[in-house]
Amino acid sequence: MNERLPHFVDTAPFDVYATERLTPEQERYYLAPQWRLMWWKFGAHSVAVAAGVVLALFYVSILFTEILAPYSRDTKHTEFVYAPPQGIHLFHEGRFVGPFVYGVRYHLDMETLKREYVPHRSEVQPLRFFCRGEPYQFWGLFEGRFRLVCPAEGGQLFLLGTDRLGRDMLSRLLYGARVSLTVGLIGIAVSFVLGISIGGVAGYFGGWTDAIIQRIIEILKSLPELPLWMALSAALPVSWSPILVYFGITIILGLLDWPGLARAVRSKLLALREEDFCTAARLMGASPRRIIGRHLLPNFMSHLIASATLSIPSMILGETALSFLGLGLRPPVTSWGVMLTEAQNIEAVALYPWLLLPMLPVIITVLAFNFFGDGLRDAADPYS
What we know:
The protein is an alpha+beta fold. The chain folds into 2 domains: 86-157, no CATH class; 171-379, MetI-like (MetI-like fold). It is 53% helix and 14% strand. A 3-stranded antiparallel sheet has the order 1-2-3, with no helix packed on it. Strands 4-5 form a two-stranded antiparallel sheet. β4 and β5 form a beta hairpin. It is flat, with a radius of gyration of 30 Å.
């Protein structure tokens, strides 16, 4: 019973961190900054990535609208009023020709008074790429003629048909994207500034300040949104130029969208203002403005960005609805909502359904922003 057990001594040097050493992958993850964690998690959301690619293509396209559009915005083809979309073909009579369209012949049906266009199979019109087309003013700065695609010499190219004035629908959709897509960005910028400022004041100071701001928000949220948009848009002077009307609409959309963001900011600040780092900053003499801007807002800025991306679709839909009702943007400004005014006549829609095509980019953009915002919202909390 008193016999001692043998004692073994390990002669290898002792490493105090041996049991806690991380693998290179673990070390890379735990030492990564917040933005990189968000990027990794966002990349795992395949639907959000696809939506981001679609939005990136849309917004890049508005930089080169004049080059991408086959025709200028207001070019009229009076002999091709309400022309249907032309199909692109590659083969003619069993022979490969390359991308081309058939010429069309027009006649008026005297019974239905419908314009009918019949493809002329013997008239092959090859498309021209990287060509010289109609002259244009690139961003209104300098004249150019280079275009991505052009119709054949003396031919026509109406891939999405034409409207009641014979204007190419595809070209007008591309020009309208420049207005409809930027309305959301400018509107959300106005809403972002107001929401963060007012919500930050309410959440940080609380008390009677918070009570007054919350009552104002409740009043604004109780008002019907569309009639309020219509009333404020109708108040814009008729004598204003299209540019002033454009900025007026964006400001109206921004002024009516900030209450939701302000409440989100208020709720976050109410929780964070009692944290130790906020108390320490206050004891060190930091001003409320510095505490809110440097210590509180950065803690949930990723959530604010995700909320902003989810609010942009409502801005785009608001502009589309107002322009469709004739209370938003007006010609000569072209937007998707302005183009949809052509579809107010049900008889025209029944005869020429391609007038409803401006709905497609609106639907695609709204869905893409929603998927993109969902991905950002999930990525905003990379440790979840």
